[in-house]
Automatic annotation (TrEMBL):
Family annotation (Gene3D superfamilies): 3.60.21.10, EF-hand
Protein known as: Serine/threonine-protein phosphatase with EF-hands
GO molecular function, one term: iron ion binding
Phylogenetic lineage: Eukaryota, Metazoa, Chordata, Craniata, Vertebrata
Enzyme class: hydrolase
Domain EF-hand: 518-553, 603-638, 655-678
Length: 704
């Protein structure tokens, strides 16, 4: 009995240690992911001045596929419309075998999908009485393995097997376009049995940062730009929610205390091409002026009168790149840092003088017309902002355990809503359950709010192999959720619990060390605040406080210090200069480049790449030296920091090795990637275990 008690005590301690490591590893991944989303939302405004919107009647002609020939040597699937289930099954099998669909068929499939989506309502309403069960899937994020595994376990969509896919089909994974094509193809074959909800990643601006844009341009080099433009339109037409038997609401993000399904049901969803910003006000001009709707950019700037003439970008007057060059950074530098709430206030203030910039040039008749339309313009703008806020909450919100509804400052968009908001919403709409996605969960799902909210995530191994399971849910006529979990990678089945936790932990700590190194100068300043005598050392508690004050990730630094800060002096103090060496991060050899500029690049690498992709309007992968300089000026406005022209020139000269006046975006970003110098064995040292026997075995495993 004593031996059994001893073994039991040891085992419980062992499981508790593994769970603690698993939880802080999870916190690292999520904190850094949400920090990136927040940065993405803040830099969204940089894209606004380049939008060009065609009339719907022009899209089919603009994206005509009939002039694209399919060569005889093409061995991939060939599609004949209307599609049959046999053709779709063959396409799925081709994607399983890593074969690619020809761009002609891609464009044709997308055009047919766009035509169908335009006929669908904002909220799809389906019933279980026509089938035995409805299958609901969460985020897939470009992970084709997970979708294929779901089809293997549950069967492909059919008349007897309806599916609801709850958004975030793209980004992060490497097979986003294949997932879209499969889902769209099944939608065309079974329009009443396959239902697609829009997610926050079905947004062309978000795609710039998280990989989908780059994936499409890499796989379809010749027609990738046309495919992306059409997908931008398709994303805006995706339905916003699905209701099962009037009792279960399925949406991607969540709700707020102002969510109104009646309002959501009647909004013009296609206006919200990007849910991150309200749609721009459009004005119709004579046909002789332009064959395309002109984007009207109503803005406030820091000029004397706080008014600026509305900018018109004519499609037939100059190209979009010229448009970028002709715009001064002052035009939009004041807009970059706006939060969602600030944007709402600005849009409301703008509505009163939306045409004021034309009054001096068009005379008193226009003044009279503007004044008579002022109230109508104000009402329209307020309605548009309210609609946009509803959609933003639907796509970006997260549940919280406390009552109430507060802005989601972690992501930068949407809100956090509590169980009281859930109860009130369900009571008002006579419903019993909300199924949402948007958040990665370790078990693939999670109930909250007294089991009235179910979070569903279908992308397994999202952060790292072994980091989480995927799940989908089946609902029958009784509407009781039946959950199925899985993990797509066979590698996870070959690892012990300790090895699995260790592998994920290694990856998380690597990312965290890179974040720490990228904030080196700020961290040194924070340490010096505690080191008044300039001894070069701080206590471990002061180290933890300083690190959190700089990174603001909300991580348990005092627990992580055993993994990140082991170079202690005999007095238990930390030498912070030696600590930076211990991080073992290798930076590029750029001694002649301003160190502050390099740190800015390391810290905001993803944001900088997003802006590069924005400036690269022709999607060539190259930008001019002038665009390069303008990008850095835009970033400096976004960060509210000074970056000198000399520092930017030094950097551009260093990168342009062949002196052709152009910069390869991919090569530039790769040249400034921080790399981890630590050996995998060193990274795997546990803060709780005194030996490395298991980790040594792990190091020798050829499957890792």
């Amino acid at each position: 009995m004593k031996a059994a008690v001893l073994i039991q005590r040891w085992y419980r301690q062992y499981v508790a240690r593994m769970e603690m490591r698993r939880r802080y590893t999870w916190n690292i991944f999520q904190s850094i992911e949400y920090s990136g989303e927040q940065a993405q939302i803040k830099c969204t405004t940089a894209r606004d001045f380049m939008n060009e919107v065609c009339r719907d009647t022009e899209w089919e002609r603009h994206f005509c596929y009939k002039n694209i020939e399919v060569p005889e040597i093409y061995s991939g699937p060939r599609l004949i419309f209307p599609l049959t289930v046999e053709q779709v099954a063959a396409m799925v099998e081709a994607f399983r075998n890593k074969r690619q669909l020809h761009s002609r068929y891609v464009l044709q499939l997308l055009l047919e999908t766009w035509k169908l989506l335009r006929k669908l309502p904002n909220i799809s309403r389906i019933s279980t009485c026509h089938s035995k069960e409805i299958t609901v899937c969460g985020d897939l994020h470009g992970q084709l393995e997970d979708l294929l595994l779901i089809f293997y376990k549950n069967g492909m969509p059919s008349l007897d097997r309806p599916y609801v896919f709850n958004g975030d089909f793209v980004d992060r994974g490497k097979d986003s376009i294949e997932i879209l094509l499969i889902l769209f193809a099944f939608l065309l074959v079974y329009p009443n049995d396959v239902h697609l909800n829009r997610g926050n990643h079905e947004d062309h601006i978000v795609n710039l940062r998280y990989g989908f844009t780059k994936e499409v341009l890499g796989k379809y080099k010749m027609h990738g730009k046309r495919i992306l433009k059409l997908l931008q339109k398709i994303f805006s037409w995706l339905p916003l929610a699905t209701v099962i038997d009037q009792k279960v609401l399925i949406l991607h993000g969540g709700i707020s205390n102002t969510t109104d399904l009646c309002l959501i049901a009647r909004v013009d969803r296609h206006k919200y091409v990007s849910a991150l910003r309200p749609p721009k006000k459009r004005t119709q001009y004579p046909v002789s002026q332009s064959s395309v709707d002109l984007d009207m950019e109503d803005d406030l700037s820091g000029t004397k009168n706080n008014q600026r003439r509305v900018s018109l970008i004519k499609a037939n007057s100059f190209g979009p790149r010229d448009g970028f060059q002709r715009r001064s950074l002052q035009d939009f530098s004041g807009r970059v840092p706006r939060t969602v709430d600030e944007e709402i206030e600005v849009r409301r203030r703008q509505s009163g003088f939306i045409k004021g910039g034309f009054s001096h040039s068009q005379g008193e008749l226009n003044n009279l017309a503007v004044s008579s339309a002022s109230q109508e313009s104000t009402d329209t703008a307020d309605t548009t902002v309210e609609e946009w806020k509803q959609i933003l909450d639907l796509l970006w919100s997260d549940p919280m355990s406390q009552n109430g509804c507060i802005p989601n400052e972690v992501r930068g968009g949407g809100c956090y809503w509590g169980p009281d908001v859930t109860q009130d919403f369900l009571d008002r709409h006579n419903m019993q359950l909300i199924i949402r996605s948007h958040e990665c969960k370790q078990d693939g799902y999670e109930f909250c709010h007294n089991r009235r909210v179910l979070t569903l995530f279908s992308a397994s191994n999202y952060y790292e192999v072994g980091s989480n399971r995927g799940a989908y849910v089946k609902l029958g006529p009784d509407l009781v959720p039946y959950l199925i979990q899985y993990q797509a990678s066979s590698m996870t089945r070959e690892l012990t619990l300790r090895k699995n936790v260790g592998k994920v932990e290694h990856s998380a700590l690597k990312v965290l060390r890179e974040q720490l190194f990228a904030h080196k100068s700020d961290l040194v300043s924070a340490f010096q605040e505690f080191d008044k005598d300039k001894t070069g050392v701080v206590s471990l508690n002061d180290w933890a406080t300083a690190v959190e004050s700089v990174l603001r990730l909300g991580l348990p630094w005092r627990m992580l210090r055993f993994q990140l800060a082991t170079c202690k002096t005999p007095g238990g103090m930390l030498d912070y200069q030696e600590w930076f060496q211990e991080l073992s991060i290798k930076e590029p050899q750029m001694e002649h480049i301003d160190q502050g500029l390099l740190e800015t690049l390391y810290r905001h690498r993803a944001t900088l790449e997003t802006i590069f992709r924005i400036v690269d309007l022709d999607n060539s992968g190259f930008i001019t030296m002038e665009d390069f300089r303008q990008t850095w000026k835009l970033l400096s406005a976004f960060l509210k920091m000074e970056i000198t022209d000399e520092a930017i020139s030094d950097l551009s000269v260093t990168i342009d090795t062949n002196q052709d006046g152009n910069i390869d975006i991919d090569e530039f970003m790769e040249a400034f990637r921080l790399t981890d110098k630590k050996s995998r064995l060193e990274r795997g040292k546990s803060m709780f275990m005194g030996t490395t026997t298991d980790l040594t075995k792990l190091e020798g495993d050829p499957n890792i």
